[in-house]
Write a structure and sequence with these properties.
This is Methyltransferase. The chain contains six helices and eleven strands. Helix content is 35%, strand content 26%. The radius of gyration is 16 Å and the shape is globular. It has helices spanning 5-24, 33-49, 63-70, 82-91, 129-139, 176-185, and strands spanning 54-57, 75-79, 97-99, 112-118, 140-151, 155-157, 161-162, 165-166, 171-173, 189-196, 206-212. Strand 2 (75-79), helix 4 (82-91) and strand 3 form a beta-alpha-beta unit. The N and C termini lie far apart (37 Å). It has a seven-stranded mixed beta sheet, with helices on both faces. A two-stranded antiparallel ribbon has the order 6-9. Helix 1 runs parallel beside helix 4 (82-91). It is an alpha/beta fold.
């Protein structure tokens, strides 16, 4: 089966911008306090549950994966871009990073204690999100946690430049209620949400959703 065109565009674009991304995107220590708090809370929940490792899906150069590891979580990263994976492996040789797509994860059923999808789903066309969230549900252990964070809105963006380089990906910003509904439809129970207005380095509304896969009866 041919790869969906949006995956090709994302891979090629992030291969192009990988080095510039590292220079321009601030590290986790410079995130806003509320986003850092959500990551810390997620890490504590995953540690306490003890159900398995966390997959950082769309991990880019691995800095948030390493941040989770620093919070005591067994974490590894997955990304479409070989260049991003190469940068992550170079920067954090003690952590595991693999190429892959969240549309078809090479992971077993119930293998994960947690999933982090941190600003990594907005390049996914809305019609593909049910398949992506079904993969999240499949690979999470019963009782496992998902932390999703991204921009929100009601807009389709088609940039020609990103991080100072040519890109061909698109971005799809959806309302937070719709994202929560899609997670619920996939069988994940949303337990907390945080929505923030633009401020600081972030010029768009952004949000986090914490969800959990129900435990088996």
């Amino acid at each position: 089966m041919a790869e969906p065109s949006f995956l090709t565009a994302v891979r090629e674009s992030y291969d192009t911008v990988a080095a510039d991304y590292v220079e321009r995107v601030p590290p986790p220590a410079e995130m806003d306090p509320l986003s850092r708090a959500m990551l810390a809370g997620f890490a504590e929940l995953v540690r306490t549950a003890g159900l398995g490792p966390v997959a950082d899906l769309g991990c880019g150069p691995g800095r948030v994966t390493a941040h989770l590891a620093g919070l005591g979580v067994s974490a590894f990263g997955v990304d479409l871009s070989p260049k991003m994976i190469g940068l992550a492996r170079h920067a954090y040789p003690n952590l595991r990073f693999t190429e892959g797509s969240m549309t078809a994860l090479e992971l077993g059923d119930g293998e994960l204690g947690g999933i982090l999808a941190w600003y990594s789903t907005h390049h996914t066309p809305p019609q593909w999100l049910p398949a992506v969230f079904a993969e999240f549900h499949r690979t999470l252990a019963p009782g496992g946690y998902l932390l999703w964070g991204d921009y929100v809105g009601d807009e389709r963006l088609q940039p020609t430049q990103g991080y100072g380089r040519p890109v061909s990906y698109e971005s799809y910003l959806l309302p937070l209620d719709r994202m929560a509904g899609l997670l619920e439809q996939a069988g994940l129970v949303v337990t907390a949400r945080l929505e923030q207005e633009p401020g600081g380095r972030v010029n768009r509304p952004h949000a986090c959703l914490l969800a959990r896969k129900p435990e088996k009866p």
